[in-house]
Write a structure and sequence with these properties.
452 residues; alpha/beta; Aspartate Aminotransferase, domain 2; 3 domains; 7-stranded mixed sheet; 5-stranded mixed sheet
Length: 452
């Protein structure tokens, strides 16, 4: 019997086919040639599965080509109900931040040029005025991320010397990175004080010596400790450190700039609170509760910040013009505390009334039913994510799709664009709280395409 694989067309034959001409107009010839080779190889491995006719071959090659041309980093819909989902890029940017990136990226900027003086300037001045205004700090520096800021500070202020830190604050963050290991890379030597559940100011005082260069307090943002617990406050540590003339470094992590207590989210300290309590330096992330781009913000004592700027390591950890543009635009929104919760997407998602989320879910569900897709609207529980408010559970609403949950989840995840949800009790749940309200129409259309 003749092997059907002998009848497979050659690469050149397909290239000359009229059916493939549109592909050559869409993509470089080399890309089309590679897609043809892959399509032929796939058919060779699957006897009897070869496309029948040039049009069928063109569709197969186009599918391969589209996969090849698709960027590895692309937009997805986050319907998990986790607002600050680290795997999905954390905070989506506000419209003002996106416009600032576009304006800065489209041409030249005064990144390191002093317009007033007509001479070389410093990138470290951008966003600093806003940070001073919003945190009450006297100065600030922006680096690549929060961990980088802490490493820079410890390397600058405590390399070769001791740093006091509570045993209850030696936390592990995402990707199995542990704060003590990150801190140790700075060259400082960590001295643990207190116990896992209880650390008092007296524990820090007992460990004080001429070798101590700083006290570090790490906000336990990604887990909660309850019961028989105690910890020293920033104010208490500041009083102790002032007498010993050592700085208090407070790692806030989340980057919260406005209190969310009136929205049912208490307990997360703000940068202004920490500075007012006496912290020498505070450290926070730009892409968590602040709602901006990935960045590490260090704010506080101007003499200490000046030393950080002069450390050669600062150049290795510096941010680019697009990050600074987005951060500056995001910070500017905080000048109006009444509207910032609507203009910064993360805050808008966290503070939206559940009745508003339900109305949106009902509208998307009606849209899907119009396409003949069965979907239910159910109560859900969202979370903040990003290591912030670890115990908070936020009332939400989700679309529930029953049936082959694993298969449905895969179809959504492989859609264009991908939709990432979660499986619970045999159903796929798509939580609307983590989908921006402005994207509801596009979200519904993407669902319809994936499920039709």
């Amino acid at each position: 019997m003749t092997d059907p694989r002998r009848d497979l067309p050659s690469v050149n034959a397909l290239l000359e086919s009229a059916s493939l001409m549109p592909l050559l107009q869409r993509a470089p010839r080399a890309v089309v040639v590679e897609a043809i080779r892959v399509a032929i190889d796939d058919a060779r491995r699957e006897p009897g599965g070869a496309p029948a006719g040039d049009d069928a071959w063109a569709r197969r090659v186009e599918t391969v080509m589209n996969t090849h041309l698709q960027p590895s980093l692309r937009a997805v819909f986050n319907a998990t109900g986790v607002i600050l989902h680290t795997n999905l890029g954390r905070a989506p940017l506000a419209e003002a931040a996106v416009r600032a990136i576009q304006d800065t990226a489209a041409g030249y900027s005064n990144l390191e040029y002093d317009i007033d003086r007509g001479e070389r300037g410093s990138r470290y001045v951008h966003a600093v005025a806003l940070l001073r205004e919003l945190t009450g700090a006297a100065d600030a520096i922006v680096v690549n991320n929060c961990a980088a800021g802490l490493v820079l500070a410890l390397n600058t202020l405590a390399r070769g010397r001791e740093v006091l830190v509570s045993r209850g604050e030696l936390i592990e963050i995402g990707g199995r990175f542990r704060v003590p290991e990150i801190m140790a890379k700075s060259g400082a030597r960590l001295v643990e004080v207190g116990s896992t559940n209880r650390t008092h100011t007296s524990d820090y005082a007992a460990a004080m010596s001429d070798r101590v260069a700083a006290i570090v307090k790490v906000h336990r943002s990604n887990f909660a400790v309850a019961g028989f617990v105690a910890e020293a406050s920033v104010g208490e540590l500041a009083s102790l450190a002032r007498d010993r003339q050592v700085p208090v470094l407070h790692d806030l992590g989340s980057g919260l700039l406005v209190s969310l207590e009136r929205y049912g989210l208490p307990g997360e300290p703000t940068a202004r609170d920490s500075i007012a309590a006496g912290a020498s330096l505070v450290f926070m992330s730009g892409d968590k509760l602040l709602g901006g781009p990935q960045a590490g913000i260090v704010a506080g004592d101007p003499a200490l910040i000046a030393r950080l700027r002069s450390n050669p390591l600062a150049r290795a950890l510096r941010v680019d013009k697009l990050t600074l543009a987005a951060l500056q635009a995001t910070l500017a929104l905080y000048r109006d505390p009444e509207t910032v919760v609507r203009s910064v997407p993360v805050l808008a998602m966290l503070t939206a009334p559940v009745v508003a989320v339900r109305a949106r879910a009902d509208a998307v569900a009606a849209r899907l039913r119009g396409h003949g897709i069965e979907v239910a609207v159910v109560d859900s529980t969202a979370s903040v994510g990003g290591g912030a408010f670890p115990a908070a559970r936020i009332a939400s609403v989700a679309l529930s799709i029953t049936g082959d949950a694993v298969g449905v989840e895969a179809r959504l995840r492989m859609g264009q664009p991908p939709i990432v949800g979660r499986i619970a009790d045999g159903a796929v749940l798509l939580d609307l709280r983590s989908v921006a309200a402005a994207q509801d129409a596009a979200f519904g259309d993407a669902l319809a395409r994936a499920l039709s």
